[in-house]
Amino acid sequence: MIELQNLCKQFTQKNGQVFKAVDNVSLKVAEGEICVLLGRPAAARPPP
């Protein structure tokens, strides 16, 4: 089993603003299960 609890990832942009890419994500993936996470393409995110 893989388990994530309260996962967060943020980037500070050149202008000093914080961009939260992931905020408070928790999930469990049991053995034999398949999990897919979808989001915006990397090219669509604001520049760092």
TrEMBL record:
Taxonomy, superkingdom: Bacteria
Name the record gives this protein: ABC-type Na+ transport system, ATPase component
